Amino acid sequence: MKYLLIVCFLFQLSSFSASAQEFKYHTVEAGETVYSIAKAYNISEEAIYKYNPDAKGNLEVSSKLVIPLSSEQKQTSAETEDVQFITHTVKRKETLYSLSKEYDVEIDEIKRFNKHLYAEELQRGEEILIPQRKKAPGNTELASSRELDIPRDSNQEISETREHVVLPKETKYGIARKYGITVKELEELNPKVDVLKPGVMIRVGTDVLDEPVILTDEVFEFYEVKPKETLFGLSRKFDVSQDSLISLNPALEDGLKIGMVLKVPNTEGSGGNFPGDAEDMAGDSENENPNKKLDLSGKLSNFNTKELVVLLPYNLNQIDEDSISSYKDAILDDRVLRISLDFYSGVRMAVEKAKSFGISTQLKTYDTRRNVQEVINIINTRDFRNVDAVIGPLLQNTTEAAASKLTQYNVPVISPLSNREMRSYQNLFQSRPTDDILKNAMFDYLENNAVDKNVIIIADAASNVIKNELTQILPNSRVILPSEAYLSAEKIEGILSETQENWVILESSNIGLISSTTSALNRLAREHQIKLFTTNKNAGFEDDVVDNQHLGRLNFHYPSVDKSYEDMVPEEFIEAYKEKFDMIPNQYVVRGYDLTLDVLFRLASAEDLYDSFEKYTGFTEYHENKFHYTPKQNGGFYNDAVYIMSLDEELNLNVANDQ
């Protein structure tokens, strides 16, 4: 019954979610060109390129083009506007989004004066025009042609410089970082400037970061690299991964240098790295700790209606609208459809819950039909410019396609369920931790808690890589390498300790080895203290051959994306869902609820989703899932919030880590 209600609702949505813009498909015939098609529909060629970027090349016969039938043509001439231009040479890793932020101009404005960007990506080395409204004298960084980056050794003098007008409260450290130089080099370029004062013009380098000079920040501070410091040591010092440090400081890609000014997490009790900056750097201690749980429901301030789009692979085009039996057959036969419907019902529950906090949401959902081209068509034929966030699609290729297309509007795309490593897009948020993140979370747990324990690693040949990683983290551990899919108690007993607690790490997906090892450990646990761990709770541990009672007695520990919903979800949520859909919610329902409520709370507690991660660095947690997004090195974000779950003798699941 629940599925029928949701499917019917989705069919009804088609009449409400249609855009005011009308479109049609045009099938290309032999001999047709973009010019002839544009003339036939009385539209411009650029209008066709806007919705069909691939049409820039040769048109293929029988291919389909999206044709806007009633779009308004904006043809304002550049000559009639009060505008001036910067000629910008595109550098490596620059995007339209980064340029729009650097020059404070809309992406659409850049495309407007560089028509080819409607259909093509930025190319390194090409020159484009950046429009700038004419400013009154006194503004910082007046329009001028940008110079190409020239790699510079740390011992070379700075031969090329540009001017920078000091703004209120700027420091030498923030300015040095922005322009890729050391504080000493900045002082050498400006020997007569002893104290920075607002309005003073100074000389700086030309290697400019794609972000403004940062002085005060609740989340970050500056740190000057000292002799003999390493990237590994700094990552430990500031409790942040090396990848995150590089993401925060792109100059690190060329290596760590003495005197570099880095942007690092503003840790509590750092004492301040620079004179005069301590007061400016002081932030809200509640938000500085990434291991602190946040309750965003008490920080809501932005109550504008949220534009939320859900993209899911319903594949409704294959269902007969007039046949209830067709609904039932499709749902029973199609696991992806069932997951999509469950997830979407959780989304709707979250939207209703958000209303009780004063958050209004305009929710739209579209059927991706599990097809990349359909995702592109959806985005091309709807207006996504004011969308606050897109949740979905489910599959990797369609998610990447959505993120790629929506980069132009900087619309956040949240991947809800995929645990595969995805391509880096600046607007892509991977909300489900990958297997590597789960593994590393267990590595951290073992490293932090295995002190004074007798650690034994049991790994088959297929787990050799993980075994090597574990021995590096736990150098005093002992290793057993089974040659067969069976391990006896005798082979384990000889290296067990009778005075220490024995932590056994089992790495295998072989059902026979898992079953025999857990059975042997269960017998040995009568005379020894034994706990069982794994970095990967795969299907082998779920097999009926493996006795759950044995796992419970061994206090089995494993990393998990979520908690067990049966034990953790509040009774009132279950009852509310049963009343609405006449069914018990499953893990996909709860996932849809948790993820959507987190997105809505973040949007309502900050200017936008990106701003929320700058303001609040702790993790959020709901019924079954928690979220802590970390920047990826090449763009985008991933959720690294992981549970370490443990099973007790009564087969109850508990959370072993509280971070």
TrEMBL record:
The UniProt entry, under PROSITE patterns, shows: LYSM
User: Where in this chain does the record put each LysM domain?
Assistant: 24-67, 86-130, 162-210, 221-264
Q: Where is the composition biased (Acidic residues)?
A: 277-287
Q: Which UniProt keywords apply?
A: Signal
Q: Which residues form the signal peptide?
A: 1-20
Q: Where is this region: Disordered?
A: 269-296
Give the highest taxon in the source lineage. Bacteria
> Which SMART domains does UniProt cross-reference here?
LysM (SM00257)
Per the similarity annotation, which family is this?
Answer: Belongs to the leucine-binding protein family.
Query: Which protein are we looking at?
Result: ABC-type branched-chain amino acid transport system, substrate-binding protein
